[in-house]
Amino acid sequence: MEQRGTTTVTLACYVQQHASFFDRNKDGIVYPWETYQGLRALGFGILNSFFTGIGINILLTYATQPSWIPSLLLSIHIKNIHKGKHGSDTESFDTEGRFEPSKFDAIFSKYALTYGNALTWQEIRTMLKGNANVFDPIGRIAALMEWKLLFSIAKDENGLLTREIVRGVFDGSLFEKIERKNKAAKGVVLR
């Protein structure tokens, strides 16, 4: 268990929290249009959100289905999101979707050599090469795209991804912060 704000969070639900941001109607299922809406809320453009959203749902739909029958609507089931884990990643989530703090810390101890608690884009590239599994082109591409998307929306004014920012993407809290910031910038009243 970990204390996050006023809520106690079990490490097992981190991957579900991460994915739940995209479940816009909170029914436990993420459809491509919800992924699109979530990406738009994060500040991505229309085309980027469309193609990235379709790609994410295509890659995760079958693995997360509650049965062997694929979904023609390309739905992602949050309760099974841990089954969509790809190779060549940081292993900060285990195969059951539990957060692994030691693996998360290893990202920074091994690769954040310039600033210690923040990653440059070059250090992220080095990390991706270090985590790449042999004969895993899909996992390598997925990891690259995830980190590129994260870097594009969350790097600080110095072009760095801090430990706090990266932790926020793993537990899903960063997505909510970015959406609130984007809504405030557009003058949308937040409740």
TrEMBL record:
**UniProt keyword list:** Membrane, Transmembrane, Transmembrane helix
What Gene Ontology molecular function terms does this protein carry? calcium ion binding; monooxygenase activity
Transmembrane domains' residue ranges: 41-63
Taxonomically, the superkingdom here is: Eukaryota
Q: Which InterPro entries match?
A: Caleosin-related, EF-hand-dom_pair
Q: Which family does it belong to?
A: Belongs to the caleosin family.
Q: What is this protein called?
A: Caleosin
